[in-house]
Every structure is written in C-alpha cells, then in structure tokens.
C-alpha cells in the first residue's frame, strides 16, 4: 500500500528544496504546480476548455497566466469556473502518477494543500516552515519580487501558524543539513527504511 505524503508550506519556506531532497533520496514526487504549467502549455489539456470559457486568456495556443490573473481579479465567478476545468485534469494527472509509481511512499507537492481540502485524502501532511524574518529575506531576494507582491501572496495563503497547527509533521528549514536530516528521519518513520 502506498503511503501518500502531502508536502506544503507558504512561499519562501523551503518547499521546493525539501521536495528535491525527497527526490534525491529516491522518493517519487508529484508537483501540482508543474502539472498546472503543463496543462496550460501549448497542447496542454486545459488550453481548449479554458479557451471556450475565457477566450482572451489563451494566447499563442497556451493559457496566459497574466491574462488569466487579470480575469480572476475582475470577475468573482471566474475562479470557480476555472477550477471546474482544472481540478479534474490535475486529479487525473496525480492519479496517473501514483499508479505509475508503485512505491511505498509517494510525496505530493501541493502549494494549496489546505485550500483545496487535499488533507482529507492524504495519509500524512508535512508542512515546511521557517521564522517570518527568514521567509521574508528568502522571498524578497527573488528577482523582481517586491514587498507589495509578497504581502499580496501572503493574503492568499493560509497563515503559516495555521498550517503548522493542521500539519501531522512540521520540518523547520533553517539549514540544509538539518532539513535533509529531518527528511531522512521522516522517510524512516514512514517506511522503516533508511535513505542516504
């Protein structure tokens, strides 16, 4: 039986780095963001259905995120209609990934894990976290990131304290070595096997 481990965390908390550590240790990792990018890319399964509902969001045979974000900003009903298209496609991709990786542990990297009620079907939820000042320093060091954009992103995410409260496991991502050790220990806890 495959153990489904959900991985989430607010922006700048080290989720991508932690996901890479699981991959490096031989654990299959499904990436929700990468899946959506693929669905929106030229030839992606979401392009035609999105074009039917939001024709102005499709440019050069792909879904334009800036155009889509503008629609979502101005039309309160748009998000629900978009989710009706995208969520079943994401679920189908996720189910296919799990079926293709008959491993004792599969990590599902889901940025909006709590927001999309994924905790209901996962076996374990892992939240990565760091102090607010560390988070801010990491995010504001990103090219093109401003305090205003960072603040806006935070308003759209469940607060870190709430994520920590709802998690089964919390890993502090202050140093790479400590994070890697915590990942190794969690893999051992869930599978009984050591991974170097």
From TrEMBL:
GO terms for biological process: coenzyme A biosynthetic process. It holds the Pfam family CoaE. CDD domains: DPCK. Its EC number is 2.7.1.24. It catalyses: 3'-dephospho-CoA + ATP = ADP + CoA + H(+). The keyword Protein transport does not apply. InterPro entries: Depp_CoAkinase, P-loop_NTPase. One of its GO terms (molecular function) is ATP binding. Transmembrane segments: none annotated. Keywords: ATP-binding, Coenzyme A biosynthesis, Cytoplasm, Kinase, Nucleotide-binding, Transferase. Its main location: cytoplasm. Catalyzes the phosphorylation of the 3'-hydroxyl group of dephosphocoenzyme A to form coenzyme A. Belongs to the CoaE family. This is Dephospho-CoA kinase. It comes from Loktanella atrilutea. The lineage of its organism: Bacteria, Pseudomonadati, Pseudomonadota, Alphaproteobacteria, Rhodobacterales. The gene is coaE.
């Amino acid at each position: 039986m495959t153990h489904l481990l959900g991985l989430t965390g607010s922006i700048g908390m080290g989720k991508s780095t932690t996901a890479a550590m699981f991959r490096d240790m031989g654990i299959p990792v499904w990436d929700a963001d990468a899946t959506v990018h693929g669905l929106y890319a030229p030839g992606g399964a979401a392009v035609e259905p999105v074009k039917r509902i939001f024709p102005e969001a499709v440019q050069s045979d792909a879904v334009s995120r800036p155009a889509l974000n503008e629609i979502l900003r101005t039309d309160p009903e748009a998000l629900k209609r978009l989710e009706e298209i995208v969520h079943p496609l994401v679920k189908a991709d996720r189910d296919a990934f799990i079926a293709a990786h008959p491993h004792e542990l599969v990590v599902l990297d889901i940025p909006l894990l709590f927001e999309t009620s994924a905790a209901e079907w996962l076996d374990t939820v892992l939240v990565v976290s760091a102090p607010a000042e560390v988070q801010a320093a990491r995010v504001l060091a990103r090219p093109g990131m401003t305090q205003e954009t960072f603040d806006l992103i935070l308003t759209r995410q469940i607060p870190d304290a709430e994520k920590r409260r709802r998690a089964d496991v919390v890993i502090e991502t202050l140093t790479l070595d400590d994070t890697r050790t915590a990942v190794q220990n969690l893999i051992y806890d869930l599978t009984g096997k050591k991974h170097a």
